[in-house]
């Protein structure tokens, strides 16, 4: 990979490689954009086949965080970090070494948990730096973000119902939920509490059983795409909306928690042409990020609830922009995110006076 050319295309500000030989830590931090604020994004540990694969992943994920934070109205930029390694080889030493590296970035990057990292790992990092979120509530942390992500998904579904059917009664509709893990289970719970018809599927029987106990109907994994439900709620892995699955859809809405739901942009165009309403993934699944962002100002559950409820309006605004500009929803979300970064960037341009002020303050302090 021609690194600088790639950074040019994707628009990254900074990519840092960290190596701590003693603990075996090999990590990459990618800071995509800090116009709106410090770059916040999770730390993923994965046995990447090679450095190239890790780099590609961290560049893609950090860029996604910029868009998610922007469209959610947060004063945060986009970043992400990856540790190259087998999660079974984790150690306190490794995460504390990472914490010291994160500290050296001076707050431009703030980390959080992600795939294969957990609250305990964040606690180790927290011993070396304050630039970490998702620590235990006893340290002012916000705990598991998944219930907030699920709450945001429900708000997004309501915005879809409003757009499509002019009501927001989730109980009046039928759903197909794929993936019943941390987020999916809570989504099913909300839907069943409203007495909705819910079809579910997962790779793990125990997770299916939990949802069947709530009154959901289990279907085989491959059958979920063709069930007779109005709303498809992807809460498993990415790319489940693809050229093989779309032709099976009887769904009128796609609104779920999974990241990167569309296998390609063309799939987003295809949904648009078929009149299937798509709630852009990074906007509808931002509840967890919103929740964690509040830790930075002192965690407050009430504020978190209020912010996550705002996903209803965010999704509604994306639909309005898409309609105004006659573009698919996934493009409208990107546009909204980019417009906000450009606008706030203009506000933050220092005036001539402010620039001089900084210069003189620097001189007074003897710098
Ligand atoms: P999870 O690992 O707890 O749950 C995922 C579930 O999907 C598992 O039960 C797994 O068995 C199941 N699954 C995987 N492949 C499947 C398939 N092909 N068919 C059916 N089931 C399958 O993950 P999670 O934390 O619930 O996150 C779910 C999705 O939401 C992920 O894409 C994640 O990136 C995204 N997301 C999560 C959060 C959060 O707060 N946890 C926030 C934003 C986005």
Can you offer a commentary on this structure?
The chain is of the alpha/beta class and 367 residues long. It has two domains: 120 residues, 3-Layer(aba) Sandwich (Rossmann fold); 195 residues, Rossmann fold, CATH 3.40.50.720. Helices cover 46% and strands 16% of the residues. It is built from 14 helices and eleven strands. The strands form two sheets. The protein has a six-stranded parallel sheet with strand order 8-7-6-9-10-11, sandwiched between helices. Strands 1-2-4-3-5 form a five-stranded mixed sheet, with helices on both faces. Helix 2 links the parallel strand 3 and strand 4. Helix 5 crosses helix 6, helix 5 packs across helix 10 and helix 5 crosses helix 12. The model has no long low-confidence stretch (mean pLDDT 94). The site of nicotinamide-adenine-dinucleotide (NAD) has 24 residues, from helix 5 and helix 6.
